[in-house]
Amino acid sequence: MGWIYLAALLGAIGCMVLLDWRFKLFFFARPGVAAVVTVVGLTLFMLWDAAGIGLGIFLRGDSPIATGVVLAPHMPLEEPVFLTFLVLCTMVSYTGALRLIAYWRARK
What is the pTM of this model? Predict the structure, then answer.
């Protein structure tokens, strides 16, 4: 049962990739730019997490659905996977919203 959270995160990333593929929103529109944005976003969030952990703000709690694998003190394996999902979800939503706005403006 310890891999449920990681599996759910990977499934959610898979769903975002399918949306991206279907509508060519982020990676399937501009893969080079998308890779840079994803790496920069993930790096910034990981630095933010490291600062929060260092300041004692972020702590790792025990959960029966998490793997229990820790990359660093208070940094579970699931954290970079979640942050990757966060960046991907944000960018797919943002580019999708831009496309919808452009569509609505063109209809007027």
Answer: 0.91
The rounded distance, in Å, linking the Cα atoms of 20 and 26 is: 6
CB of 86 closer than 8 Å to CB of 45: yes
CA distances from 94 to 11, 15, 20, 22, 99 (A): 20, 16, 11, 15, 9
Cα–Cα distance for residue pair 53/76, rounded to 1 Å: 12
Domain boundaries, the chain: 4-101
CA gap 104, 26 in Å, rounded:
20
Each residue of 29-67: pLDDT tens digit?
A: 999 999 999 999 999 999 999 999 999 998 887 788 889
pLDDT higher for 86 or 60? 86
Q: CA–CA separation, 103 vs 108, rounded Å?
A: 9
